[in-house]
User: Fold these one by one.
Assistant:
Number 1:
Amino acid sequence: MGFFVSESENRSEHRADTGTGSGTEHTGRAAGGDRPGGRHRRTALVTGASSGIGEEFARRLAERGYDLVLVARRAERVEALAAELAERFAVGAAALPADLADPAGLAHVEERLRADGSGGDAPVDLLVNNAGHGGGGDFAGQDVAEVEAILDLNVRAQLRLARAVLPVQLARRRGGAGRVPPLGVINVSSMAGQLTAAPGSSVYAASKAFLTSWSQSVALEAAPHGVHVTAVLPGFVRTDMTRSLQDSGRLPEPAFVPKDRVVLEALRGWAAGRAVVVPGPVYGAADRLLRLVPRGLYRTVARRAGAKRVLRELD
């Protein structure tokens, strides 16, 4: 029953400590530079930007003219992406290598998010909280380090980054910034968090349930001030990470949502001020169905599925 692991989670993406780095700018124009008249360009910071959904967010935002701050552990990959997007779309793109599971790396990114435009860095209009950690197995046998990594990246890092940027965005609205461009945060959660029980993915699913619930509460707090906070709940996403699962035939083709669709629906929903976005019609229907299924019935089904899995392992 370990369903709906969001493909923003790459188990190796944020594990090794590579140091924080100071960030490197690649310029079609200066990242976060000024417009004529002293106004900053629209700027987005994307975590987990070196592959998968995070990379797709970076590409789509560059197409829309956003200057970018790209955060990922893998310095070479994020540097190459920043250089490519700067040249292709004539935007500023700064690579900010950081391991968000490491306190120093997390603090480095928080510092960038606190920029309010009074110094050399532009304020961040959109934070895409995409980095995360997958993992599963029965809880009693799950490696403690993996449990800690899930909590560090799926909960602690997401909250601290949002906590760093939201006060700046709220102050900008109070200071007279208009409703355009939109300001706020996109939190990449997962359909796993919608499950009543998720044997085999208990910690991961619980972390995503927390993230979705917290994000919706913050959305209600921020909305009256013109700041949008959106939780995005992907199911299985068609990426290189799910290639073997796609090729196995264990799931029907419609179960896999293209990553460009996930990102496009997320950006549209965020711009419209929606608190939750479930990309793809299949998962939209699944989300509605999960809300209707009685919890007791769901737990019974989950228990039986878990028993069958154990019997297969013993066979």
Number 2:
Amino acid sequence: MVEAVRRRRAGGAPLVEVRVDGEWQSWSASDGMPLGLPEVPAWRDRADGDLLPFAPVSFRDFMLYEQHVIDASRAMARAYLPSAYRAASLFERLTGRTFPRFKPAPLWYEQPIYYMGNALTFVPSGVPIVAPTYATALDYELELGFVLGRPLRDATPEEAMAAIAGYVVLNDVSARNVQLAEMRSGFGPQKAKHFISSLSLELVSASMIPDPAALTARVEINGQEIVRSSSAGMRHSIGAAVAHASRGEQLYAGELLATGTLPGCSGLENGRLLVPGDHLKLTIDGVGTIVHDIAAG
């Protein structure tokens, strides 16, 4: 049974390897990609360095954690809407309740919500990250990613879970200073999100993750643990999220989806944004790790 998949360079050419019984071994190219994944076009690989374990053909990023929405909304108001933040803080102090505008919209409670990201700007762990020229507030988002290994349409949550090939650690890199204006446009994040995202170097088979809602996660910067979190507490299960994405829509092997930010696992929430010289490490136990050096532009 295939436990995990990775791709690396051997003699200048990509080599697919699978982990079986704890040992890595070569995978025959004549068998296609493992776990039902599509082949990776040569143009998707970087000229040097590590390789992605697979090439996402699309990217849907869900927002499954209410606590993340509340804490991130509060922090966004604090940073970019100071007058509104003072009024909201007064409301929360006087009532002991969350300011209503910090909570998700009503539709979020009824169905899984997602935005479509840029599947073509994913890079593997280890690639230095340089903020685009317009980004003055560079941030990370630690998420659990999952990729389909078979086609899917109008699936039940059980059928959707069975179609997941495996899980990866995912970093949805963000430019916070432009995000609020883009979200207010009504079209969702654009330049705030689409410039780069990253994946861990190994795809762990779904068979190795019996409960994706019970995983421990950590954010470390420069060797210091910033936050410890968990994948628990989703409003909608992963199966329900994938099933919703498939409603009236054909999904294919290789499509990547993610949970959205695990609670507390962004600098916006925990107060530690990225600056040049930082070394970022994002971990989900049992799934993998992403590391990046933050470089000056």
